[in-house]
What we know:
Elements: E1 2-12, E2 17-27, E3 31-35, H1 42-49, E4 57-62, E5 65-66, E6 76-79, H2 81-86, H3 94-106, H4 113-125, H5 141-154, E7 159-163, H6 171-186, E8 190-194, H7 198-204, E9 207-212, E10 214-220, H8 221-226, H9 229-234
Helix pairs in contact: 3-4, 3-5, 4-5
Bound molecules: adenosine-5'-diphosphate and magnesium ion.
Amino acid sequence: MTAVSLEDVTFAYGEQPAVQDVSLDVEEGDFLGLIGPNGSGKTTLLHLMLGLLSPDSGRIELFERPVDEFEAGERIGYVSQQATNRGGTMPVTVREAVTMGRFAHVGHGRIRDADREIVDEALETVGIANLADRQVNQLSGGQRQRAYIARAIASEADLLALDEPTVGVDAESRDAFYQLLESLNDSGITIILIEHDIGVVTDRADRIACINTELFHHGDTESFVESDALTEAYGATGQVVHHHH
Ligand code: ADP
Ligand code: MG
């Protein structure tokens, strides 16, 4: 099944399109790295994919249904750029934040033991069961990422979309975090990852979409590495970030 399908999608906030004529399919089980220079339309494209913005023209489907038919939270776990950068200021514990992942299924106030078990399992999966009673805004960057992922797991998301999730996270936590993403992907969850560090993306993702308003490349990581898409898309901006182990 196709998880996300974009056909000739164009979107502008004002005069200049932020995303232009983008067509691409993300298949279920893909681990897609979405890359491009600063301001190249990555976040905008992700918002379009998830139905948070409506395109000016073109067609978008999620799991082979028009994206505007989707309920908030249905099948999708989204970790926004703001969430991870600012960490959220809501005074909630990790367990409460992860429990919110169940609301899409049962609604407020209808949390049962079975839901609590799913929450506990999600906390175990990401390795933060010991932090369940801590406030989210007291966590380190790396721990906070895990809390957001746990919420997505608890919601039984089929698609996990992450916008620069490791900004401000130390290298060691970041490696562990990407290992977690890989194992979630191995268990069948489709992943779309925006990441400014090209080295990380080519190490971890099996497919790459490279954009700068328009799509410069979409295909497997190997064909991306062998192509000129990177220099073409980043061209004059010279903002390529290479990660060295
Ligand atoms: P990226 O995530 O690749 O850094 P964005 O999708 O955030 O890029 O932004 C793409 C372009 O759209 C940029 O030129 C940015 O300034 C502009 N943009 C982003 N969000 C808004 C907004 N809410 N209103 C107006 N322009 C915006
Ligand atoms: Mg962005």
